[in-house]
Specification:
The protein has 186 residues and is α+β, with helices and mostly antiparallel strands. The chain has 3 helices and 11 strands. Strand 1 and strand 2 form a beta hairpin. The protein starts with a helix and ends in a 17-residue tail after the last strand. The relative contact order is 0.20.
Amino acid sequence: MRRSRLTMLVVIAALVVGAAMWWQAGDPVSRTASAPVTEALPSPRVPSPRTARPSSPVDTPSGTRLTAVYMTRMGQAILDETGAVLFRYERDNPNKARSACLGDCAVVWTPVTTTGTPLVTGIDPALVDTIKRPEGAEQVTLAGRPLYKFANARPGEWTGQGTDHLWFVVKPDGQRNLNCLPVPVQ
């Protein structure tokens, strides 16, 4: 009887310690850039009339749609028409009409391109433009910065947030989103 009580106390103590460790750790997935982090896709913000539709048939976009959203854990973000979370690259200069992500970089971080005027929802259209990439594609920019998506990410996934302290989820105003950053590497 005494032995079973001791065993039960050891099991309870182990459970309490395990629960405390879990509680202290929080959500390790949201702190790790290499782990896929995702959440259910939110509904887009209610569009204003001037950003909801192209103003004329000439402005009709050819597939590229940018939608401002609020994600529960990430906060403000922009999704493309596939649900991919969009990023900005800190080595891009918003005052120069070119991308600093070329070659192998553009394989991992796919440039968001368009063949027409992008349709925006919840984003000031005056902030959206395009630049010509070296291979000739038109890359979408927001507040002067080219937009990218992580090549292997699924819809709603922000894998890569904070990578090398250079890649950040982009907010609808073009600023970097600093939520859900990985633990700093020491």
